[in-house]
Amino acid sequence: MTNPFQSDPDFATSPRRAHWFFRYKLYHIPFWIVYHYIWWVVALGNPLKVVEALFTTSIIKFFFYVILQALAVYFNLYFLIPRYLEKGKYAQFLVYLCLTILVTAAMIVPGYYLGGVGGG
């Protein structure tokens, strides 16, 4: 009987055999773009208005959201959780998590200004 995971390149036994798209985890990029697009559709209420906004200066603001929020999520997943949460350091984890959220939000704000400058 064949193993169903052998046909999936993401679960290949050798990283060299995996497709480059899965080997470098590039499927995360379309995920984050679609994720934020859906939230903008919820906020604006019209998918066509979101597409129209993305082809104007809002693309700068959009990329600030996508990149910075993804960085914050991966920082939480790969640094904060293993170092603090899994070791039972709950207070430190919550403090650093709140700081991560505040810093990420503060770094997203310049995207609004750069979008405004780009718009003339």
Written description of the protein model:
It comes from Dyadobacter sp. 676. This is Fumarate reductase subunit C. Keywords: Membrane, Transmembrane, Transmembrane helix. The chain crosses the membrane at residues 26-42, 62-81, 93-114. The protein has 120 residues and is mainly α. The chain contains five helices and no strands. The protein has helices at 20-23, 28-44, 47-54, 58-85, 90-118. Helix 2 packs across helix 3 (47-54) and helix 4 packs antiparallel against helix 5 (90-118). The longest helix has 29 residues, at 90-118. It starts with 19 loop residues before the first helix and ends with a helix.
Topology as H/E string? HHHHH
Could you tell me the mean pLDDT? 84
**What share of the residues does DSSP label as strand, in percent?**
under 5%
Instruction: Count all strands and give the number.
Output: 0
Radius of gyration: 19 Å
Q: Please give the alpha-carbon distance between the first and last residues.
A: 63 Å
Fraction of helical residues: over 70%
Q: Main traits of this protein?
A:
globular, 120 residues, 5 helices, transmembrane helix, transmembrane, mainly alpha, Fumarate reductase subunit C
Secondary-structure map:
Layout: H1 20-23, H2 28-44, H3 47-54, H4 58-85, H5 90-118
Helix pairs in contact: 2-3, 4-5
